[in-house]
Structures are given as structure tokens and as C-alpha cells.
């Protein structure tokens, strides 16, 4: 897929507005590489003094030293380029990434206790729950193939950043949560409950069949 200059010019305004808005709320945002055409079906990424095959990645190689940049500087970064919006994890927030099916079940569990959580979704089918930073994954979650924690020294793409097969988007916007991030433990508990949901449903179905046969 080709990413034209006219597309970048229009999309840059939206990317810049999102980046500045996040920065004003204290979120550590960074400029990331942006699409620059494709080759053999894969997007090429520009912004680091050349074209890369992987992206989006931070434009500045010393990006960890730039965490906490003021909104005015963030606005200046997006003045001339349609940079992706990246969020540095491990400072204000961490991100717990899960598959879409598990994410839906966990979101359902969180809704039952009245706790909205900012959630980012990717075209590849990943959901990322944004939580307060600093807590490691529970052992049972860390051992699960469908769960990954992004913490200090890492970053994630934030909406509306383009990625390999589309654009990341909010499943739950931070505005809905009043820009408040949940304690990681609560989301992890919901994920554990969500992992157990299929087995609970299966056990219930088996009991129902047994009762009908009884």
C-alpha cells in the first residue's frame, strides 16, 4: 500500500492533535516512524534518516532520554511530519497486551464492577489494557501465551498510529475513564477471571447435559 504525501499531510493534523492532547495529560508520547510506501507487500517506514522494514519505532535513538517532554515540544515534533504516536511504558502507564477474545472477556468482567479501563486495539487482533505502571505480571498470567506486559524501556503505538496492516484505535478512550488509570492488580484479576470463563461455561454445559440425561 502506498502512503501519498497528500495522505500524510491530512493525517498529520490528527496525529499531532492526539499527541499534544496526550502530552497535556502527562502521558509520555514520542514520535515514531511513519509509512513510506511498501515493498513485497510489507510497509516501509521512514523518519530515522532512511527507510526501515520494521515499524513504527521511535524516531530518536535516544528516546528514553526524551521521556516527559513538554507539550510544546511535542507539538513542534509533529509540525512537519506525520509521525506515528508512541507511548513510553513504565513511567505513567504500563500496557498489558492480550488477544481480542481474552480482551473482550476481561472487559466484560471489568464492566461488571463498573471500572472502565483505557484499551487500545490493533488490526492484528491484540488488545492492550493501560494500567498504572510498576507492577509485574502475576505468575499465572506471565506463563500464559496470550498475555504480555509492556513496562520500563518499552513502548507501544497509540491511536491513531498506522501499523503494518491498518491503524490502531481506542476500544475505550481515556476520556471515558476521566484520564484515570486503574491499578494493575485489578486488571490482572479480571484477566485471570476471563481466562477461567471458558472452562466455567464448559463445566456448566456438562452439568446441564448430565441433568437432562439424569
Q: What do you see in this structure?
A:
It is globular, with a radius of gyration of 19 Å. The chain has a 5-stranded antiparallel β-sheet. A 3-stranded antiparallel β-sheet has the order 1-5-10, covered by helices on one side. Helices cover 35% and strands 26% of the residues. It is an alpha+beta fold. The protein is built from 5 helices and 13 strands. It has helices at residues 5-24, 71-77, 100-112, 139-142, 184-213; strands at residues 29-32, 34-39, 42-46, 51-52, 84-88, 93-99, 119-121, 126-132, 147-150, 155-158, 162-163, 166-167, 169-172. A hairpin with a 4-residue loop joins β3 (42-46) and β4.
How do you describe this structure in short?
The chain has 214 residues and is α+β, with helices and mostly antiparallel strands. The protein has five helices and 13 strands.
**Intertermini distance:** 60 Å
Characterize the main sheet: 5 strands, antiparallel
Content-based structural category: alpha+beta
Please state the average pLDDT score.
87
Radius of gyration in whole Å, from Cα?
A: 19 Å
